[in-house]
Amino acid sequence: MRGGEASKELWMGGNLDKGVLSCGQAVTLIEDIPTVKELIDRIVSEATETYKKLG
């Protein structure tokens, strides 16, 4: 493919076989991959705890 078409397939189409994805050292800090619901629940819970500590 020419003219960046392969990169476009990678980034826009999600075809991971069409290019190289780079990631930094922070990728090693990922401990879990929660669902959206779990993530929102966790954020709300942490915000509530922080609010109680400050108030």
Structural write-up:
With 55 residues, the chain is mostly helical. It has a domain of 26 residues. The termini are far apart. The model has no long low-confidence stretch (mean pLDDT 86).
Describe the structure concisely.
The protein has 55 residues and is mainly alpha-helical.
Fill in the keyword field for this structure.
single chain; 55 residues; mainly alpha; 2 helices; 47% helix; 0% strand; elongated
What is the CA-atom radius of gyration, in angstroms? 19 Å
Mean pLDDT: 86
What summary fits the major beta sheet? none
List how many beta strands DSSP finds: 0
The N- and C-terminal alpha carbons lie at a distance of 59 Å
What's the total helix number? 2
Strand content: under 5%
**Helix-residue proportion:** 40-55%
Structural class: mainly alpha
Order of helices and strands: HH
Net shape: elongated
Unreliable segments of 5+ consecutive residues:
none
How are the SSEs ordered, and which strands pair?
Layout: H1 5-11, H2 36-54
